[in-house]
Design goal:
The chain has 441 residues and is α/β, with parallel strands linked by helices. It has 18 helices and 9 strands. Strands 1, 2, 3, 4, 5, 6, 7, 8 and 9 form a 9-stranded mixed beta sheet that branches. Helix 8 runs parallel beside helix 10 and helix 10 packs parallel to helix 17.
Length: 441
Amino acid sequence: MRITRTGGGRSRRAAVLTTTSVLTASALLLTACGGSDSDSDAKDSDGKITLTVADYGQFGYKEAGLFEKYHELHPNITVKEETTANEQDYYPKLLQQLNTGSGLGDVVGVEVARVKEVVDTQAAKFVDLKDSIDVSQWVDWKAKQATAADGKVIGAGTDIGPMSLCYRRDLFEKAGLPTDREDVAEAVAGGWEDYIKLGEQYKAKAASGTFFMDSASAMFNGVVSSSEQQYYDTDGKAIYKDSPGVQEGWDLAAEVASKKLSQGLPQFQDSWEAALRKGSVATVVCPAWMAAQIETYSGDDYKGKWDITSAPGDTAANWGGSFLTVPESGDHTKEATELVKWLTAPEQQAAVFKAVGIFPSNQGAYELPEVKNATLPYFNDAPVGQIYADEAKTIPVAVLGAKDGVIKDTISTQINNMEQRGTKPDEAWEAATETIDKAIG
C-alpha cells in the first residue's frame, strides 16, 4: 500500500533497512533465466522493445534499480514506468482504458481494494498468469485474491501489509507503561480491547499535549483486516452491516472516540503529518509500509524513540498490497509476462523491501538475508523482517468484495466525524450506511 492508494499509503522517502548482506547481480540473474529469449512478432523494426509499466504511488522498482538491471539482462528491452501519484485518480482511468481497449500499459498495477472488482468484471481482458508464474510462491491468501472463479490468475502479488504496532518508547516511559517490544506485545496480547485499556492507562499519565493513538479509523481498519469475513460474503453480497468484524471495529472506534484516546486525525492529511512532526502521537496501527511514513514525518528528532512490536491479539491482519497484471491487448504480452515474473520473484521483492520498505508477498523472499535479517535503525533496530514475516504467515484468507475500498473509506470518514465533530455513533453509522448503499447500489 502506498500513501496515494485507497485507504492507506507509503512515503516520499523510505525507511532505511539494515541487513547482513546486499543484493548482488548474480542473485538477480538467477530469476532472469527462462523465457527471456522471447520472439514476439510485435518488436520494433530494430528489434528493440519498450515495455510500459503503469502504476501509482511508489512500487519501489526505480528506487531498487530494477528496471536498469532488467535492461542489463535483456539489452533489447527498455522498461518505462508511468506513475500516477494518486490511486484514486489512477483507478477510474484504468477502468476507462479497459472499457475502450486503448491507452493501457504493457504491465498494469492493481490495488488490493480494487482487485476483486477487476477479477469479477474484467478478467477476460488480462493474460492468465498461472501457467507462467508459480502462484504457490505467494502467501496463500494473496494468490487467491487475484484468482477468478474459473481458476484464471490475472495478477502476480507485489507487496502486502502485515500489521504491527508502532509506538513511542519515550512517551510510554513517561506514562509508566512498558517500553520493551516484548512487554508491549504482552500488554495487548488479548486483542484490540487490551489496546484500548492500554490507551486508558496512557491517558491517565500522558505527557501534556499527547494522545495514545492517531486515529480510531486506523484501529478500525486493523480490526476488520484481521477478520476472514469483512464487507462481503463469498457470494459477492455486501454484508458489512451484519459483519462481526465490522461491528466490532465500529464499536471499538466509538469507544475510542468517546474516551478521547485518539487525536482524531485522518491519516496522511496535513494535520496527521504535522502531529508526527510535533511528536504528539504515542501509537500508530502499523502495516509494513507505515514505518516509512512515520520516519519521514517524525524526522530526526525522534529517531530511536519509536519502536515496533506485534499487532494486538493472536489473529494477524493485512492492510494493503498490490498486483501486477498483463492486459491481453498489449503488443508484447509474452515479454510483459516475463517482466512481471521477474519483478515479483523473491530476489527482486527483497531488493524492493531493502530499498523502500515494501514487504514482499512472495514467501521465497522471507528467508533471504535482505528480509530475514532486516532491522529498522529508526525504530530502535526493530527486527521488522522477522515481525512482518511471522504476521504474514498467519493472516486469514479474507473474502474481498467489489467495493471494499468505498465501504472502508466511507466508514472511516464517519469515524473521523465522531472524533472531530462529536457525531453520535448511531448518527454516524446511519450516515455511513446511507452513503455506502447509494454508492454500491
